[in-house]
Amino acid sequence: MNAPALVWLLAWLGDSDTQRIRGTEEAPLKEQNRNCDILYAMQAMLTFAVLVSLTGTALAQSPPAAVAPEPTPFYAGVSDTASMRAIVEQRAARADGHLKALLDVQGARTVENTLVPYDRMGLELEGALRMTRIVARLHPDESMRMAAEELGQGLQRKAPRSS
Fold first, then answer.
1. Half-sphere exposure of 58 (CA within 13 A, CB side)
2. Is residue 120 part of a domain?
3. pLDDT band for position 90 (50/70/90)?
4. How many domains does the chain have?
5. pLDDT band for position 10 (50/70/90)?
6. Same domain (yes/no): 85, 151
7. Is the CB of residue 126 less than 8 Å from the CB of residue 70?
8. How confident is the model at residue 18 (pLDDT cuts 50, 70, 90)?
9. Is the same domain home to 91 and 49?
10. Do 103 and 154 belong together in one domain?
């Protein structure tokens, strides 16, 4: 059964039938309650079937390409301000590459050519921002904290804003 037919069936089994069953004077009260319970159960099962069928069609679409997790800790290779700046700039450059791919799309927009580059850009920027925030707050060396604060402010201007 397709989704519109299930939605119609749910509407047909809606409140008007519940009121009709409750309103019958001939059936004893226990029978009326049993009929309502059966009706509610049928309505719940059909609602579940509609949700499963709609979710199944949404999940049947091709999933976006998976983003590989970082193989090393985010602070690996950070020993001084120059190394931290290099790592942050590398991540920012990769984010710029994803932004360029996003803007260079010709033709129809799809999950693969629009949302995947956008998500990857956000992951790169967030990874760099996360490192600068942690170093700016926790590193024992004042020069590292100041450099991380400066790098973080530059990255925040690039980060996409969620509305």
1. 7
2. yes
3. very high
4. 2
5. low
6. yes
7. no
8. very low
9. no
10. yes
Indicate whether 102 and 44 sit together in one domain.
no
* 89 and 133 inside one domain: yes
**Whether residue 53 sits in one domain with residue 88:** no
C-alpha 16/C-alpha 34 separation (Å) is 17
Q: Is residue 49 part of a domain?
A: yes
pTM of the model: 0.54
In a domain, residue 144? The reply is yes
The whole-angstrom separation of Cα 125 and Cα 92 is 6
Among 163, 159, 99, 102, which Cα is nearest to 128's? 159
Per-residue model confidence as pLDDT tens digits over 95-148:
999 999 999 999 999 998 899 999 999 999 999 999 999 999 999 999 999 999
Tokens 């989704």, located at residue: 3
Q: Tell me the three state secondary structure of residue 1.
A: coil
CB 84 within 8 Å of CB 151: yes
> Whole-number mean pLDDT of the chain?
76
Identify the burial level of 27 via C-beta atoms within 10 angstroms of its C-beta, where 0-12 means exposed, 13-18 middle and 19 or more buried: middle
Q: Pick from 103, 84, 88, 80: which is nearest to 154 by CA?
A: 88
Full domain range(s) for residue 130:
81-158
Dihedral sign from CA coordinates of 105, 110, 113, 115: positive
